[in-house]
Amino acid sequence: MLEQYGVTRLEVDVDGSLSYPEPVLDQKDNAERHSSAKPLNCEEEHLMRVFYEQKIQEVCAAFKFPHKIQATAILYFKRFYLQWSVMEHHPKHIMLTCVYTSCKVEENHVSAEELGKGIQQDHQMILNNEMIVLQSLGFDLIVYAPYRSVKGFIEDIEEFCQARNGEQEKFKDLRETALLEVDKMMLTDAPLLYTPGQLALAGLRRSNAVHRVLDFEGYLHNLFSRQRTAYSVSQLGELMGTIDSLVEQLKIPTAKDMRHIDRKLKSCWDPSAQDENKKREKRSKHKSKRAASEMQGPVPEV
Amino acid sequence: MRREGFGVARVGGGGLGCVGVGDGGRARQQRWLQQYELVGKIGEGTYGLVFLARTKQHRKSSIAIKKFKQSKEGDGVSPTAIREIMLLREISHENVVKLVNVHINHADMSLYLAFDYAEHDLYEIIRHHREKLNLSINPYTVKSLLWQLLNGLNYLHSNWIIHRDLKPSNILVMGEGEEHGVVKIADFGLARIYQAPLKTLYENGVVVTIWYRAPELLLGAKHYTTAVDMWAVGCIFAELLTLKPLFQGVEVKATPNPFQLDQLDKIFKVLGHPTTEKWPTLVHLPHWANDQQHIQGHKYENTGLHTFVHLAPKSPAFDLLSKMLEYDPRKRITAAQALEHEYFRMDPLPGRNALVPSQPGEKIVNYPGRPVDTTTDFEGTTSIQPPQPPSGNAPPGSVSAQSVAASRAVARQMPAMVGGQRIPAASMAAFNAAAQPGMVGLNPANIPMPRGAAAQQQLRRKDPGVMQNPGYPQQKRRF
């Protein structure tokens, strides 16, 4: 079954029973194609999602959108693919719709046309997927990103360190690196698992490991002494450790990895094209550069 | 009623739906519409249409379905719809309207928001007293309505939401049933989370009625605070007491974002001229600083708010009202503070059913139900042959002054959801002059919907909101 429908096609009903919703292809076709078309495995789906999440960051950076837009878009994207497989909706399209929707929600409205033009993609595709994205998100659209928390904690840390004038520079470094760390976290499962405040602290701790601005452990104890929290400093430490390992495990796929996965995905959609692909691949073995740029998906050109 | 050709899926999951949960958010054809029995259209605005429907389940409940059109040509789901849904999905409070479901029509990419239906709203309640009963609203009812409005608003403000468009037609009151007489704040199309950057209304391209707009906004303040909602509550409080809008300025219609001199003038006339002593940040407000149209020079003696609202200047009610209408937004009373005000601690105490006083012997007002236009289907198409059209059936869109007056009681712009476009109909002036002595120049903020008026009038009698009220004496209502 898994092989037939891909990894995320299984549906669990309220009563715990499993069901397999409408197959992508009808039964007859399926039987014929079953032998040739191999669905993506979990790892490949995962790589593909990470690749396009990183693309979201590139696109948002190219448009000079605020950090918040990028974070919201990535969370939409992640939550969308909790419900769907990349074999059902191509992440290249969904990614753009997520950016578009994020702009609307964050009051930074950009028309679909403008967005499409900026990254040389058909804006109709963005609009076509808008409803399915909204629907898949259950219309739960408000997202809290860790970026604001980072800024808040920095102010608190400055106070904790009783920062004097002239020391501003090191806190700025602490913040900038923490923001970059949070950017990385956005590409992992961490934002689905931890709160913005926890992510922000984990980012600051990682940043402090580089800049050595303060006794972070001491700061955490101070922080906890001021606020009633549901967990202890050591529990927070454990949780930040998990976030650390998620960041360290993060592997951003190369264009080469993507080439392989994308080819496989194409054959899932249209198995007859597979032989075609193989032939072409042989022919253009030495022209891999061109192929690589094709596979890269939308490249921001602003 | 045309129901075919409706490729519609309902939104599953997320706890949004009460019906058909478990279809995993996937598109199913023609599913959701069959859950409802369409009764008719109850309103219309720039965003789209509002319908009344009933669920077909064991307990037939009434649902208001708000249909959003696509925003601009080719720019997907309307940002207003998105804003409203995203806020409503987060909030849950007895005094805030409840979003029951969201439906999608994939055929034309329109959204349908299903709400618990509220039979009344403050606009209609006030109007009923002013025009039909010629009698002020019971003090218990006024206090209960105000308390519940503040209770809902306090909830919103504690959750960092500013409503920004409070006015009588957006304050709903539940009809007969378990929640009879409970206030529901509606219409979050302009609401904002206030950590988000707040753009001015003009930039959002939305027109809101100016009568409830706070002075700092009229003077060009760019930032919204929760105090703007409290100003509006003050205006509504006064309107509940006197049955007419407190500050009825004549709106300047121009772009971009015109300076509303007349509205400010109306405020100054009642509250006196603002001074920098009482309102220090006044000097920073752009329209004041530029002395737009010599606004600083418009001097009025403080004639006294109490004479306008017929309250004793030392009464707790007046004290509360004047604290809501405080010029300086920083000094203006907050919703939380207002709930603690002495006014609410003295008899009559506010109650949950605002429409039915707890003391026996009090006269109970039987408010008419919301008019329903049963000639319009879900797609907004008005049928050309309504059932048994009475004589003088005016064609849609062309209504004489006479039939406007007649239809006013029958159909008007949907109050509940969104202050939609106002139609500066010349014919309204004549109507206002005739029907409301002393109220000439009343801005027709909620003027009737000139469509199928005559037909609705007949159907009106079947209105369930009226029929299901056997316990109370029928008020003299003229048709």
Structure description:
Chain A is an all-alpha fold. Helices cover about 65% and strands about 0% of the residues of chain A. Chain A folds into four domains: about 1-35, no CATH class; about 40-135, Cyclin A, domain 1; about 145-250, Orthogonal Bundle (Cyclin A, domain 1); about 255-295, no CATH class. Chain A has helices spanning about 1-5, 25-35, 40-60, 65-80, 90-105, 110-120, 125-130, 130-135, 145-160, 170-185, 190-195, 195-210, 215-225, 235-250, 255-270, 270-285, 290-295; strands spanning about 10, 20. Chain A has a two-stranded antiparallel ribbon. In chain A, strand 1 (about 10) and strand 2 (about 20) form a beta hairpin. In chain A, helix 3 packs across helix 15. The termini of chain A are far apart. Among the domains of chain B are: about 10-115, Phosphorylase Kinase, domain 1 (2-Layer Sandwich); about 120-345, Transferase(Phosphotransferase), domain 1 (Orthogonal Bundle), CATH 1.10.510. Chain B has a six-stranded antiparallel β-sheet with strand order 1-5-6-4-3-2, covered by helices on one side. In chain B, helix 6 (about 225-240) crosses helix 10. The two termini of chain B are about 25 Å apart. At the A-B interface, helix 5 and helix 8 of A face helix 1 and strand 11 of B. Chain B: It catalyses: L-seryl-[protein] + ATP = O-phospho-L-seryl-[protein] + ADP + H(+); L-threonyl-[protein] + ATP = O-phospho-L-threonyl-[protein] + ADP + H(+); [DNA-directed RNA polymerase] + ATP = phospho-[DNA-directed RNA polymerase] + ADP + H(+).
Oligomer: heterodimer
* Order of adjacent strands in the largest pleated sheet of chain A: 1-2
CATH topology of the largest domain in chain A: Cyclin A, domain 1
Write out the CATH superfamily name of the domain at 120-345 in chain B: Transferase(Phosphotransferase) domain 1
The arrangement of helices and strands of chain A along the chain is HEEHHHHHHHHHHHHHHHH
Structural class of chain A: mainly alpha
> Termini of chain B, distance in Å?
26 Å
Percentage beta strand of chain A: under 5%
DSSP helical segment count of chain A: 17
The CATH class label of the largest domain in chain A is: Mainly Alpha
Compressed to H and E, one letter per element, the order of chain B equals: EEEEHEEEHHEEEEHHHHHHHHHHHH
The assigned CATH architecture of the largest domain in chain A is Orthogonal Bundle
Rg estimate of chain B, integer Å: 22 Å
> How large, in whole angstroms, is the Cα Rg of chain A?
22 Å
The major sheet of chain B is characterized as: 6 strands, antiparallel
The helix content of chain B is: 25-40%
**Percent in helix of chain A:** 55-70%
Residue ranges of chain A: pLDDT <50 for 5 or more in a row? Answer: 1-8, 285-302
